[in-house]
Design brief:
Number of strands: 17
Strand order of the largest sheet: 1-3-4-5-6-7-8-9
Distance between the termini: 30 Å
Structural class: mainly beta
Number of helices: 5
Order of helices and strands: EEEEHHEEEEEEEEHHEEEEEH
Radius of gyration: 19 Å
Shape: globular
Strand content: 35-45%
């Protein structure tokens, strides 16, 4: 990496996790506690931002398992969930102008492009806002992993967008809602005034980061849906068809996706092909019930026509 303040970068120079150490707005307010990880692939990316410390505090999540548990959660849990930010899409750089197009967004859209000007200050990547006055400091890993791949996905049946990025033994994944949220209020406000059914729809979106263990399990480590942490994503790549394991209102399920675009190298490495630099905890394996697997297979057979691609870039 160059230390020139005028230098710019490309997605390939930032493969893997890029962590934020500072956010400062026009009034000088600073945020150095929010856990922010921008996970960059060959072009596609996943970005997860989780509240830390006391803004708001992490509530007691005991017993709040699955979508139904979150939909009926008390206000402190809803405030904590609504404070998360997570999005995924395509990262591009033209000159020093960077743009993060969002195919998936946990929060309602802001209505302005996500753009910033980038330059290096030593080993710190500095982002300066274009459409609002802010500064962010980013720190890529010192030795980016060259082995990276990603897929842009569309779920069969619902048409919801999906993104999966793998860099070495780590991954980021995002799935959007079946219908995007209207711009305006923040997610917290929407959750607090919604009934349980409406909350379930608002929370039917996930942005997560994880690690591939030596046995080949794709273990979710951090997620906007806390009950997913420790689960095995269990992706299966069948060419134009892709499946992942998830949890729905009726329990474990298999999601079936069409592959819209591929990037980089082979997405699914052989088990043990990548060794993590930390030992991941063994996940709580959730296997789909036999009847749910059969239902997914029937859906694959019935759905031969790909829905028109929805342009969800904000």
């Amino acid at each position: 990496m160059t230390s020139s303040p005028a230098a710019v970068t490309t997605p390939e120079a930032l493969l893997g996790p890029v962590r934020r150490s500072l956010y400062r707005d026009a009034e000088g307010r600073r945020d150095e506690t929010t856990q922010v990880v921008w996970f960059q692939g060959p072009g596609l990316y996943v970005d997860l931002r989780r509240p830390a410390g006391l803004h708001p505090p992490r509530p007691d999540l005991t017993g709040l398992t699955g979508p139904a548990g979150l939909a009926t959660a008390p206000a402190p849990v809803l405030r904590w969930l609504g404070a998360h930010e997570g999005f995924a899409g395509t990262f591009t750089v033209t000159g020093d102008l960077a743009r993060w197009d969002r195919l998936v967004d946990l929060q309602p859209p802001a209505g302005v492009p996500d753009e910033g000007r980038l330059h290096w200050d030593g080993t710190t990547l500095v982002e300066v806002g274009v459409h609002s006055a802010y500064v962010e400091h980013w720190h890529p890993e010192p030795a980016p992993v060259a082995d990276a791949a990603a897929v842009r996905l569309r779920e069969r049946g619902s048409g919801r967008p999906g993104v999966l990025v793998r860099v070495g033994a780590r991954f980021g994944v995002a799935r959007g809602r079946a219908a995007p949220l209207p711009p305006g209020a923040r997610l917290t406000a929407l959750l607090l005034r919604a009934d349980a059914q409406e909350r379930a729809a608002l929370l039917d979106c996930e942005v997560a980061l994880g690690r591939i263990d030596p046995d080949g399990r794709w273990v979710v480590e951090m997620s906007t849906l806390p009950y997913r942490e420790g689960d095995d994503l269990a992706p299966v790549d069948a060419g134009d068809r892709f499946t992942t394991c998830d949890v729905g209102t009726a329990g474990p399920l298999v999601r079936t996706w069409d592959v819209v675009r591929r990037e980089g190298t082979t997405l699914l490495p052989a088990p043990g092909g990548h060794r993590s630099d930390e030992t991941a905890a063994a996940p709580t394996q959730r296997q789909p019930a036999p009847d749910q697997q059969t239902a997914a297979d029937h859906e694959i057979a019935a759905d031969h026509q790909m829905a028109g691609e929805r342009d969800a870039a904000q």
